[in-house]
Design brief:
This protein is α/β, with parallel strands linked by helices. It is 29% helix and 22% strand. It is built from eight helices and 15 strands. The strands form five sheets. The protein has a six-stranded mixed beta sheet. It has a three-stranded antiparallel beta sheet with strand order 3-4-5. α6 crosses α7 and α6 crosses α8. The chain is elongated, with a radius of gyration of 23 Å. The chain starts with 17 loop residues before the first strand and ends in a 10-residue tail after the last strand.
Length: 307
C-alpha cells in the first residue's frame, strides 16, 4: 500500500491553518497558479499575468501586471524583511519577448506560492495580499461578512423604504455556499457586529425587492441561486443570463413582477401561463423578436432546463 504521508503537510503545518480577518474565520488560499500571460496593446503595450486563485470553497482568476506584483512586494517587504531580495528583478529591455515573459511568469508564480505557503500567518493574511488576490470580492467568508456589515447598517432602511437590494451573482453564490459550510472552529464565537449570519439570512428571506446584476467582470459566467429570496415580490435580472440563475421556478407563485434586461436570448428559456405581457424594447428584425428588454406580470412557469 502506498503511503500519502510524504505528500501531505504535517499536522501542525501552516497549510492547514484557519486565518481570521476582521473577526471572521477565513480559509487560507489553498493554491495559486499562473498558467498564462497575455500581451495587451492598450493603454500601452504591456503583459498581464492570469493568476488562478483556489480556496476550499471556490476558485477565480485575477489579471495583474508586473508593476502590480512589484507594488505588492514593496508593501510586504517593508514589513516582512524575509522577502527582501526574493522578487524577480526588472528587465531593462526585451520585456515582451516570449522567453522573458515565460521566465517572469514562472518566477512570479514561485514568488506568490512563497507568500501563500509562508509559515508566518501574518504574511498570507495581510490586507495587501488579500486585496491583490481579490479575496474581498470572491472568498465566501469575506463576501458574506461584508454583506453582514452592509445589512446591519442599511438593512432596516431597505425594508422600510422598499428600496431594491442589489446582489451580484458572486454574492448570491457565496450566500448559498456559506450555508453549506460547517463552522470551521467549534470554539469560535462569531462577532455580533461583523458575523451575524442569522440576521443576514433573516433579512435576505424578508426583502421583497431584489436586483441581480454583475458588479465586476468576474461576476460574468458565475452560476447563482435565488431560492433564499423567499419574500421577494419584485425581481430584476440585469445582464445575467437566466440560464445561470437557479431556482426561479421555486419563486413563481410569490413574484408579482419580473424584469429582465439582456438576460433572455430566446423565449424557450421561459414557459408563460396566464401572463400579461408588455414589451418595453422589443423590435422585430429578420423574423425574430429582440427580448433583451422585457417586463412581465405573473403568474408564470419557469422551465428549469431547456432542451
Amino acid at each position: 500500500m502506498t503511503s500519502l504521508q510524504g505528500s501531505l503537510p504535517e499536522s501542525a503545518s501552516g497549510l492547514w491553518r484557519v486565518d481570521r480577518e476582521y473577526g471572521v474565520p477565513t480559509m487560507r488560499v489553498k493554491h495559486v497558479v499562473i498558467h498564462e500571460a497575455h500581451v495587451r496593446e492598450s493603454p500601452d503595450r504591456h503583459v498581464v499575468y492570469r493568476v488562478d486563485v483556489f480556496t476550499q470553497e471556490r476558485n477565480w482568476c485575477v489579471y495583474r501586471r508586473y508593476s502590480e506584483f512589484l507594488r505588492l512586494h514593496e508593501k510586504i517587504s517593508d514589513v516582512f524583511k524575509m522577502f527582501k531580495g526574493s522578487f524577480p528583478p526588472k528587465q531593462l529591455s526585451g520585456n515582451l519577448s516570449p522567453a522573458v515573459i515565460e521566465q517572469r511568469r514562472s518566477a512570479l508564480e514561485h514568488y506568490l506560492l512563497k507568500i501563500i505557503n509562508s509559515h508566518n500567518r501574518d504574511v498570507s493574511s495581510c490586507s495587501a495580499v488579500l486585496r491583490f488576490l481579490d479575496m474581498h470580492k470572491n472568498d465566501v467568508y469575506h463576501v458574506t461578512s461584508t454583506l453582514c456589515r452592509y445589512v446591519r447598517t442599511f438593512g432596516e432602511a431597505i425594508l422600510h423604504e422598499k428600496h431594491f437590494f442589489v446582489l451580484s451573482p458572486t454574492q448570491l453564490f457565496c450566500l448559498h455556499k456559506r450555508l453549506r459550510i460547517p463552522n470551521v472552529d467549534a470554539d469560535y464565537k462569531a462577532d455580533a457586529v461583523f458575523c451575524d449570519l442569522g440576521s443576514l439570512y433573516d433579512f435576505v428571506s424578508r426583502v421583497d425587492k431584489v436586483c441581480v446584476k454583475p458588479c465586476s467582470l468576474q461576476d460574468h459566467g458565475v452560476r447563482s441561486e435565488v431560492t433564499l429570496l423567499r419574500g421577494v415580490k419584485e425581481l430584476q435580472i440585469q445582464t445575467v443570463s437566466v440560464s445561470l440563475v437557479k431556482g426561479l421556478a421555486s419563486l413563481q407563485l410569490q413574484i408579482q413582477r419580473l424584469k429582465a434586461s439582456q438576460a433572455v436570448t430566446a423565449m424557450k428559456d421561459l414557459l408563460i401561463d396566464c401572463v400579461m405581457e408588455r414589451k418595453t424594447q422589443a423590435s422585430y428584425s429578420g423574423g425574430n423578436w429582440d427580448w433583451n428588454e422585457w417586463e412581465r406580470s405573473f403568474p408564470l412557469v419557469v422551465r428549469k432546463s431547456v432542451t
